[in-house]
Amino acid sequence: MENVVPYKIQIISIIGALLFMFFIFRLITKGKLREEYSIVWIICTLILILFSVWRNGLDIIAKFLGIYYAPALVFLAAIFAIIIFLVHLSVVNSKQQRQIKDLAQNIALLKDKLENKRND
Amino acid sequence: MKIAVIIPCYNEEACVAEVFNEISNIKIPNCYIQPVFINDCSKDNTLVLLQSYNALVLDLPVNLGIGGAVQTGFKYALLNNFDIAIQLDGDGQHPSDQIINLIQPILTNEADIVIGSRFLLKEGFQSTFTRRLGINYFKFLNKFLIKKTITDNTSGFRAINYKALKEVCNYYPDEYPEPEAIILFSLNNLRIKEIPVIMRERIGGQSSISSFKSIYYMVKVSLAIIFIYLRLKLNGKRSAV
To answer: Smallest Cβ distance to A105: which of B56, B57, B72?
Structure first.
């Protein structure tokens, strides 16, 4: 089971993962990404780096789980993670929608109050 | 008795004047009636028109949809200690001269929520055939869940008392709130009563439900009804949020 992953792709994936990590960090430092949403991306990148370095890891885990074709495990894990994250985003979205509604209603009520004050 | 008449408006410039005049002319003994217009980001002159009459307008900075707009009015009514809130559509469909009948069961403490139904007497504008199909569907769905027949679940012509007001300020659906609110009221042990009203065909404006959206409407409201039922049942009838 040596050399399942060629060196070339190993180097590319390590560089890719590091670049991605750098990109995430830059977004955080620029204030464009909140820390709580960055955690999931940092974990994903760490997993990516782990399997880029640990060449046989994928095969060992695939074998352990009884998956014949190791790359299928990558797709399975990735799709699963994406779906979970999308659900998380929908939850965040719903929460924000509720907050926006509350804010809008309060603005309307305050505008009316302000108007009354001015007329007094 | 302080009564707030809540009128959500979205592009209703054609009929707000008439609605405003009608409500201003209602006289009920021992009752103070305050029309509360909610301008849900109308693109026409609704806001300017209402302001020119010195009407009370709550102007929403973003479009919230009918439910969010009506809830703004409910919140206003609760904050300003109104005893009764009446919901009335801005399109002139709802007969404001029947407000006195609508609040009667609340005044006599017979009910917490009074719904004006088109179908109790089957008089006046009865809506189109396909709409009635949908209305019947909600009648059976809600009957199945709350074991009580409401003939006009989609009617937005309603009066609610202070007890119900607190509930709707806490939670009220954003889109197409009427059928869902009935489940909400019922599971919070509020008494619902229907009275017959004669509705008119809308004077102007557009229904919030076009035929194009009706499938979405049915699915969305069905889901909302089922989920609010489950949520309130599972939470031991605590209020939803």
So the answer is: B72
Range of the domain at A17: 1-55
Residue with token string 């760490």: A46
> Strands of B32-39's sheet, edge to edge?
B56-59, B32-39, B2-9, B84-87, B158-161, B113-117, B192-196
The helix (H) or strand (E) run that includes residue B196 is strand B192-196
Same-domain check for residues A45 and A86: no
Q: Is residue A61 part of a domain?
A: no
User: Cβ of A112 and B64 within 8 Å?
Assistant: no
**Structural domain includes residue A101:** yes
Beta bridge partners of B196: B117
Give yes or no: residues A35 and A83 share one domain.
Answer: no
Distance (Å, whole) CA B108 – CA A108: 33
For B225, phi then psi, to 5°, come to -65, -45
Q: What is the pLDDT along chain B (241 residues), one digit of tens a residue?
A: 899 999 999 988 888 888 899 898 888 888 899 999 999 999 999 999 999 998 999 999 999 999 999 999 999 999 999 999 999 987 778 888 889 999 999 999 999 999 999 888 877 777 777 778 888 888 888 888 888 888 888 888 999 999 999 999 999 988 889 999 999 999 999 999 999 988 877 655 556 566 667 788 888 889 999 998 898 888 765 544 4
Chain-chain contact of B61 with A109 (C-beta, under 8 angstroms)? no
Evaluate whether ipTM surpasses 0.90.
Answer: no
Residue A69 falls inside a structural domain:
no
Residues A11-64 have pLDDT tens digits of 888 899 899 889 988 998 898 888 888 888 888 888 888 888 887 888 888 888
Which CATH class for the B2-234 domain? alpha beta
Number of domains composing chain A: 2
Query: Would the CB atoms of B61 and A100 count as touching at under 8 Å?
Result: no
Q: Which of B64, B80, B231 to mutate to test the interface with A (most CBs of A within 10 A)?
A: B64
